[in-house]
Design a protein that fits this description.
Keywords: ATP-binding, Nucleotide-binding, Transport. GO terms for molecular function: ATP binding. This is ABC transporter ATP-binding protein. The protein has 230 residues and is of the alpha/beta class. The chain has a domain of 157 residues: Rossmann fold (3-Layer(aba) Sandwich). The strands form two sheets. It has a six-stranded mixed beta sheet. Helix 3 crosses helix 4, helix 3 packs parallel to helix 5 and helix 4 crosses helix 5. It is globular, with a radius of gyration of 17 Å. It binds adenosine-5'-triphosphate. The site of adenosine-5'-triphosphate has 11 residues, from strand 2 and helix 1.
């Protein structure tokens, strides 16, 4: 398993008491597969993703990323793990307006200490993998919404993460572009062997995923394994 969340409980302050956002949630995601996390608004999906990203430390439970038990890591080691092993893709691409597509990717590699020439080569390779080889020198305002989300996906893969965390990546796209982005995410998950978690409201988007975990009021209420090719 490349991502193991076991017995995660998370509470938030709520006036004089606490609100239980996650209640003993266990999810394991093998390399090369996509697990969809579905559930109504407020059910705890984003909280679980933030726990998996090691951005929120749960009250109890264990988060193991690429074999690293994160509860045992120092703050510096966690930062390092996030940079090297976890890719995140959120609803809005959040690209830097003044940088070209390939430069968006190079920044990530630069922060991880990769030499500039190899970062550019890898950036171009990834833009090719997401179908944007001919848009490498375009800035965000020169790209469509779907193309911006593809740059975002390529950027998340720049440091070869073991874990890919994806939150509603198609919410800003029409159905056709959304389906294309999801198809791409599934294909890249298989090809690059990431353990991918996909948060979605939309059940029509579950076609290519390997497993579905349903969450209600912070607890897992159903799980199903679909065709696994990973
Ligand atoms: N920082 C916070 N402080 C207090 N309560 C929070 C905080 N973040 C989330 N919550 C609460 O925790 C519960 C789970 O929220 P979460 O954002 O994880 O749900 P979600 O399933 O991702 O919802 P949505 O689909 O609307 O994004 C909700 O009741 C929410 O109000």
């Amino acid at each position: 398993m490349t991502l193991d969340l076991s017995h995660i409980t998370l509470t938030y302050p709520d006036g004089s008491s606490r609100l239980t956002a996650l209640d003993d949630v266990t999810v394991s995601v093998p390399a090369g597969t996509v697990t969809a996390l579905v559930g109504p608004s407020g059910s705890g999906k984003s909280s679980l993703l933030a726990v998996a990203a090691t951005l929120i430390i749960p009250d109890s439970g264990r988060v193991v990323v690429a074999g690293n038990d994160t509860t045992r890591l120092s703050r510096e080691e966690l930062t390092d793990l996030r940079r090297t092993s976890i890719g995140t893709i959120f609803q809005q691409p959040n690209l830097l307006p003044s940088l070209t597509a390939v430069e968006q990717l190079q920044v990530v590699a630069h922060l991880a200490g990769t030499p500039a020439a190899s970062a550019r080569a890898r950036g171009l390779e990834l833009l090719d993998a997401v179908g944007l080889a001919d848009r490498a020198d375009h800035r965000p305002h020169q790209l469509s919404g779907g193309q911006r989300q593809r740059v975002n996906i390529a950027r998340a893969l720049m440091n070869e993460p073991a874990v890919l965390l994806v939150d509603e990546p198609t919410s800003a796209l029409d159905h056709e572009r959304g389906a294309a982005v999801l198809g791409l995410l599934t294909a890249l998950t298989r090809e690059r062997r990431t353990a991918t978690v996909l948060v979605t409201h939309d059940r029509s988007q579950l076609g290519g995923v390997d497993a579905v975990v349903e969450i209600h009021d912070g607890a897992v209420t159903a799980r199903s394994e679909l065709a696994t090719t990973g």
